[in-house]
Amino acid sequence: xxxxxxARFHGIHIPELALGLDYSDTNVKSIVVSHAHADHIPRNRxxxxxxxxxxxxxxxxxxxxxxxxxxxxxxxxxPFHTPITIRNFRxxxxxxxxxxxxxxxxxxxPVGNLLYTGDCKTPASPATEGFDFPKNTPxxxxxxxxxxxxxxxxxxxxxxxxxxxxxxSQKSLDNGYTPIFIGYNLGKAQEMMHMLKDMxxxxxxxxxxxxxxxxxxxxGISLGNYQxxxxxxxxxxxxxxxxxxxxxxxxxxxxxxxxxxxSGWASHEARRSQINADRLIPLSDHLDYFELMHFCEQLQxxxxxxxxxxxxxxxxxxxxxxxxxxxxxxxxxxxEDA
Length: 338
Known about the structure:
The chain has 8 helices and 19 strands. The strands form 3 sheets. The chain has a 7-stranded mixed sheet with strand order 7-8-9-10-11-18-19, covered by helices on one side. A 6-stranded mixed sheet has the order 1-2-3-4-5-6. Strands 14-13-15-12-16-17 form a 6-stranded parallel sheet.
């Protein structure tokens, strides 16, 4: 089987293939980027050495989002379900359901295969290309994130969450309040906008999130009627901002407002006082504990590597009780929102 190493700086290293997964070191020939959140994009300085050019691979939506977020190196764009051969291995991207363009990476080599999920979600976020994985080839090794790898995390259906967003918006507006949804500028904001696209109200999004919305529209995800946040016209609209925006004065002039914090972390009541939110909506773009277990059982890999989890012992104990060989690969979580 392939050797899997935690990187010195960022991501995962597959030495036999000279390949990095969401990687920022320079000792590889190729880097795969699973999606465009900042903690998965290679640092520009790692790719700026002309003496050691590194090929970067991503899906077309991820490449577009990376460029908007300041990534300067060339990117080879690979559509989903399109195998390509790179030196001594084959690479195929499968939709991961996390954000637009997010991909699981399937690596096939002479010494075994590997499925790397990156961040993933099933059932998929409705503002993505869906969720899919290799079904005709047994998987040797699986690297899977377990950000919400505790039994306290069980998500509502997308339909239930959509109804909750609509109800919060409508009730707020009916009572003369401006609804404000707190969520990350890339992925979470667009997912909520997509869920609310049919409401007959203007949506305004934080300035840093606004240009990212066009990429969603370009790739067929409708966001309805939306604008860049404008302080002068924002009252009475449906607003979207990360928590950092709210802390720096976003909509501070609006006296009658209702705030909904939307994240998997909204499962914890303590977040209400921390964020000063009127509503906690556990809307996550990651697997919950039960879908994590179901996916691992469905796939039946020979070896499972768990990353990004609050308590690896819980996940490992459950997987081993199901007869699955699993271990913890300690990667530091840096993502702003989940």
